[in-house]
Amino acid sequence: MLPRTSHLLLAALLACAPIAIAFAPAAASAASGGKQDSTVRFVNVGPYLINFFLDEKPVSGRLALTIEAKDLNARTALTQNSQLIDAMVLPLAIDLYSDGRPSQQRIRAFKLKLIDALNRQFGDVVSDIYIRSLM
């Protein structure tokens, strides 16, 4: 059995717990300076499966990308137009694999072409493109 002071202390803690929980998210937001989480700017696209014949030899690959948008509005525009993004990525991905396994130079050129195409279409919304998977 607990002494009387322990009961009072326990009752006080239980009474204050809902108040502490209610203010915890606001305190965490204030501690971080009110900044939004930076992961909301990323859009995952793919995976794209590339299969074709080149000089009677089969070429196959798999490509998954992450697009970094400049802000939340840009991310929304990219997310809402995923089919248009797919239509832009696929021809560039086929060109990427046209000589077999892509080299570092071909990967850089692919990323620059895709960033340019997306920025022309959506109005300067893409910061960078990251390759999540390349096989």
Brief overview:
The chain contains four helices and three strands.
Question: How would you portray this structure in words?
Answer:
Strand 1 and strand 2 form a beta hairpin. The protein has a 3-stranded antiparallel sheet. It contains 4 helices and 3 strands; from the N terminus they run αββαααβ. It has 135 residues and is an alpha+beta fold. Residues 17-34 have low confidence and may be disordered. It is elongated and about 45 Å long. The longest helix is centred in the N-terminal third of the chain and has 28 residues, at 4-31.
The string of secondary-structure elements, in order, is HEEHHHE
Residues in helix, %? 40-55%
Q: Based on CA inertia axes, which overall geometry fits?
A: elongated
Q: Please count the helical segments.
A: 4
Q: Give the terminus-to-terminus CA distance.
A: 66 Å
Strand order of the largest sheet: 1-2-3
Would you report the number of β strands? 3
Structural class: alpha+beta
Question: Mean of residue pLDDT?
Answer: 76
Features:
alpha+beta; 4 helices; three-stranded antiparallel beta sheet; single chain; 135 residues
Topology, element by element:
Blueprint: H1 4-31, E1 42-54, E2 57-69, H2 72-80, H3 82-96, H4 104-122, E3 126-134
Helix pairs in contact: 3-4
